Amino acid sequence: MYACLNRMTAGAGLSQEEFVKLSADAGFAGADVDINYGAQHGTSALRDLYAQHNQRPGGWGAPDWRTDPVKAKDGIAQLKTLAPIAAELKIDSCATWLLPSSDLPLMENWKFHVERLRPVAQVLADSGLRFGLEFVAPYHARRGKKHEFIFTAGQMLELANDIGPNVGLLVDSFHLYSSGDAMDSIRQIPKERIVLVHLNDAPNIPLPQLQDGARLLPGDGVIDLKKFLATLRAIGYDGPASVEVFSDALKKMPPAESARKAGIATNNVFKSAGF
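Given the sequence above, the corresponding structure tokens read:
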């Protein structure tokens, strides 16, 4: 397992070249990926960019599937170009997130997600890639619309099973904590079902008051990240742990400063967990 910088933490407005350098300068082992860079500049250019800065690829996001059917169809067409690039570079970390509430009743929303996400999973499967689904757990998000939807790892695995055999989880430490599950509850999940990991921390406030947009750097909050990382290592997960922190304070800093702070915090947590 290796720590990666996520653009939500630092470098949101930078080019891919600038972002990879930012990640390397901050001490991260890897940086999340814009696969479109490979489509625009060539697979070799993307490979060389990461090699130049001694970086490993992190996660990458699936194209739009949520909105109208035309845009979803366009997203599938785009993915058919991107998936072979990711496969050639062995970047097996495509993921997306799902809202934990909807105006659709449970089973209608379940059907909607299966119908929209199964084609995405199939395109990735055709290139030998997996697809990770991220459950979102803060209480305010679960109450944002009329009907509650999936917000735990177990529920998301059930949906993943209905979508396709190459579908697993994006496990975010903040959402696992927000869901009320123990940080070692993921021990029961086979390692191949964990496609990507997000790493972050939470303030010491009651779970119902946690806000998705107010996260902390790893080690600055109350989540037992040592146990979380140790459990991932115990089950054999060896992929990227992308540091995704939504923080107004970090956004106000220059990218180099926010990335440096994130790198120091993350390296300290990794060391405490024996990495």
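The mean pLDDT is 97. Try to locate this feature in the token string yourself.
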